[in-house]
């Protein structure tokens, strides 16, 4: 059975996210209070589009029978996204909530209020800049390669924690780009389908590292990688 994800608010963001989730085998349900936005979203043909105000308790209560695994709030106003996530926690006790914030200062407050994940565009851009700076520094190391790997469902490392992977001694996974942003993995981090790994390795260990992660001999034409 496909996992259902409720997306509240947004138009372009909601459409892009719904398309991405659909390709991952999930079933997006969209709520938007704008009739015009709903008409645009219907063109994409998701599983369901509901024209209603997602900040109203009765709107989410009417969906109580739906087994949502996640609720994602993408409204323009931070306070609306917080309200949606708090309502979702009360109505769907086991659901994970994600809120978009435009003001970075609200991030810690949202987390204290019980929102599981808080996404801020400013924060994500900052991380990307930091990551690029890190890669620029690594270019100075002779014989070093940075390899980008797109992880697929059939790959050997899927659903494994980093500490379970016997990577070569001079190879590390420097970062992971996942649906909710870029982050530096820890030993307990689990590799998921759709992850993009940034692998830092040496010339001689690259092929062995890819073999461990992908479970197959790499096809150089299908791998995206950079040489330094």
CATH architecture of the largest domain: 3-Layer(aba) Sandwich
Rg measurement, Å: 20 Å
Q: Please, how many domains?
A: 2
Percent strand equals 25-35%
Name the structural class: alpha/beta
- Report the CATH topology name of the largest domain: Rossmann fold
What is the overall number of helices? 7
Helices and strands, in order, run as: EHEHEHEHEHEHEEEEHE
What would the principal axes of the Cα set say about the shape?
Answer: elongated
Outline the structure in words.
By secondary structure, this protein is α/β, with parallel strands linked by helices. It has 2 domains: 4-123, Rossmann fold (3-Layer(aba) Sandwich), CATH 3.40.50.720; 139-227, Alpha-Beta Plaits, CATH 3.30.70. The protein has helices spanning 12-23, 35-44, 57-61, 78-91, 107-112, 121-138, 206-214; strands spanning 4-8, 27-32, 48-51, 68-73, 96-101, 117-120, 144-150, 172-178, 181-183, 196-202, 224-227. Strand 2, helix 2 and strand 3 (48-51) form a beta-alpha-beta unit. The longest helix has 18 residues, at 121-138. Residues 217-228 have low confidence and may be disordered. It comes from Dubosiella newyorkensis.
Helix-strand blueprint:
Blueprint (H helix, E strand, L loop, with lengths): L3 E5 L3 H12 L3 E6 L2 H10 L3 E4 L5 H5 L6 E6 L4 H14 L4 E6 L5 H6 L4 E4 H18 L5 E7 L21 E7 L2 E3 L12 E7 L3 H9 L9 E4 L1
Parallel strand pairs: 1-2, 1-4, 2-3, 4-5, 5-6
Antiparallel strand pairs: 7-10, 7-11, 8-9, 8-10
Structure in a nutshell:
The protein is of the alpha/beta class. It has seven helices and eleven strands.
Comma- or semicolon-separated keywords:
single chain; 228 residues; alpha/beta; Rossmann fold; Alpha-Beta Plaits; six-stranded parallel beta sheet; five-stranded antiparallel beta sheet; 32% helix; 26% strand; elongated; disordered C terminus; monoatomic cation transmembrane transporter activity; RCK_N; ion transport; NAD(P)-bd_dom_sf; Trk_Ktr_HKT_K-transport
